[in-house]
């Protein structure tokens, strides 16, 4: 009979513990010796694989506040007060708790919570709403946080897509679609940037020779093919930070930041001309072109402007054409005066530049 009553009492205690686990999944039952005799499912999940049952409460937890709670007796005297706890093995695990007497008053039931660190705890310990009692307001807060996080993530993704679209649109607006080089707008923006930063640079204007003959005899498809080959040559003969732009039909402008040595620029120009004069094959036909180059550098001017430098490079380009094409000329004051006088006497037609 006695055994039956003990079995019934044990069954009732078990049912009580199960009910307590549902009401307070972060509860601990601490005996009068300070040993944990039962741990709720959430606090056990947080602690890890090792069972809390049988361990000493004060060896698992440090009571940070109130001070002086370093014995079972002191813990029993702290009943009814808010306890600030941390795991001894993991100080990042911070809890608030309330201990109340159980049974004859010597045992304790400790109800734990996360307080304001609940969001961090959920992330650190992979907790879900099932790890909290249904009436815990923290669950509602977590739902709100999750909703806010989802909205913010969506906004970040949207902003990312918009920024990507903006970058693509800007790239398209400054890129020549046939050759992949910069276009006139891209060139103007680069020039403005160089001027704004007062950076020294060289400017080279290239006009293709005999390109009109390719279009007239072999058609615009051949001309487009030649322009793509020219674009590759110009990219290959310039540095990574240089600007290569298609400024017009068969005209190109090259910008060389931090390069104003005219000898080096002339070497680049002659290499480009040599590459341009190599035959270009297109559908069994051979396309032959060349190039004339006019160059100026920002060092030539006290206060350089994009308009002045482009005009002077064009003057130097005219001189190269006049010398028989496939030439490279650097602008100078003397050249400008001579060209102006010559143009005044016999202004060339636009066709002579091809």
UniProtKB/TrEMBL annotation:
CDD domains: GGDEF
Transmembrane segments: none
Sequence ranges assigned to domain GGDEF in this UniProt record: 199-333
Pfam families according to UniProt: GGDEF (PF00990)
InterPro entries assigned to the protein according to its UniProt record, in alphabetical order: DGC-Regulatory_Protein, GGDEF_dom, HNOB_dom_associated_sf, Nucleotide_cyclase, Rev_trsase/Diguanyl_cyclase
GO MF annotation: an example: catalytic activity
Listed name of the protein: GGDEF domain-containing protein
Organism the protein comes from: Halocynthiibacter styelae
């Amino acid at each position: 009979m006695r055994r039956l009553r003990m079995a019934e009492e044990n069954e009732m205690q078990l049912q009580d513990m199960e009910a307590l686990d549902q009401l307070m999944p972060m509860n601990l039952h601490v005996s009068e010796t300070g040993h944990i005799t039962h741990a709720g499912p959430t606090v056990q999940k947080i602690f890890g694989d090792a069972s809390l049952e049988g361990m000493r409460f004060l060896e698992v937890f440090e009571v940070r506040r109130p001070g002086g709670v370093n014995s079972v007796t002191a813990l029993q005297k702290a009943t009814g007060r808010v306890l600030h706890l941390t795991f001894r093995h993991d100080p990042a695990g911070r809890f608030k708790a309330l201990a109340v007497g159980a049974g004859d008053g010597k045992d304790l039931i400790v109800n734990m919570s996360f307080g304001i660190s609940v969001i961090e705890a959920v992330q650190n310990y992979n907790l879900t709403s099932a790890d909290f009692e249904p009436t815990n307001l923290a669950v509602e807060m977590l739902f709100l946080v999750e909703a806010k996080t989802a909205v913010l993530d969506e906004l970040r993704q949207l902003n990312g897509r918009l920024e990507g679209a903006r970058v693509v649109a800007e790239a398209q607006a400054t890129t020549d679609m046939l050759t992949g080089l910069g276009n006139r707008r891209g060139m103007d923006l680069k020039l403005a940037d160089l001027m704004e930063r007062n950076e020294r640079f060289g400017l080279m204007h290239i006009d293709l020779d005999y390109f009109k003959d390719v279009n007239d005899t072999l058609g615009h498809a051949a001309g487009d093919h030649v322009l793509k080959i020219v674009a590759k040559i110009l990219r290959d003969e310039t540095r990574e930070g240089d600007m290569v732009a298609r400024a017009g039909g068969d005209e190109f402008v090259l910008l060389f930041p931090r390069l104003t040595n005219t000898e080096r620029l002339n070497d680049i120009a002659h290499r480009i001309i040599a590459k341009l004069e190599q035959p270009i094959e297109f559908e069994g036909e051979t396309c032959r072109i060349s190039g004339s180059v006019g160059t100026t550098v920002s060092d030539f001017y006290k206060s350089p402007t994009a308009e002045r430098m482009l005009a002077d490079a064009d003057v130097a380009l005219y001189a190269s054409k006049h010398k028989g094409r496939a030439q490279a000329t650097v602008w100078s004051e003397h050249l400008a005066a001579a060209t102006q006088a010559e143009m005044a006497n016999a202004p060339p037609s636009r066709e002579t530049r091809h």
